Amino acid sequence: MIRSIALYGSIIAVAAFVFRWMEYRHSVRMFSTELYILVVALAFTVLGIWLGRKLTGSGNREKFSRNDRALETLGISEREYDVLCLLARGHSNQEIATQLHVSPNTVKTHLAHLYNKLDVSRRTQAIHKSKALRLIP
């Protein structure tokens, strides 16, 4: 922890020194305003990329494995699971019906059964609970 604080503190101190040096050089007209703006923009771009990677992780995510036991326990059929997967991808009832080659009323029936089995009342709740139960990625 102390090592991280010292490292980040050093980086901030160096950046502050560089910016003050650039400000001095700008005030004595050694550098043009455009160059000063470019350096500041590049610094913030690098900072944004680094922070974005740090906050979102390195991408080493574990591979998804479906919880078949939960599917059996809840009694979700294979067709209902197909509807659930398409629902999680954000498809409408009509799009789900088209992809599965069934009528929109059949999709509504499958959704009603899914809502009942998952004990939810909305699409978003069904998706959230399915992810929590590791039924969908």
Structure description:
The longest helix has 26 residues, at 2-27. The model has no long low-confidence stretch (mean pLDDT 86). The protein has helices spanning 2-27, 33-56, 68-74, 78-88, 93-100, 104-118, 123-132. It is elongated and about 75 Å long. It is mostly helical. It has two domains: 2-56; 68-132, Arc Repressor Mutant, subunit A (Orthogonal Bundle). The two termini are 34 Å apart.
What kind of sheet is the major sheet?
Answer: none
Q: How many runs of DSSP E, i.e. beta strands?
A: 0
* Secondary structure tally, helices: 7
Sequence of secondary-structure elements: HHHHHHH
The CATH superfamily label of the largest domain reads Winged helix-like DNA-binding domain superfamily/Winged helix DNA-binding domain
Spans with pLDDT under 50 lasting ≥5 residues?
none
End-to-end Cα distance? 34 Å
Structural class, judged by helices and strands? Answer: mainly alpha
Estimated radius of gyration? 27 Å
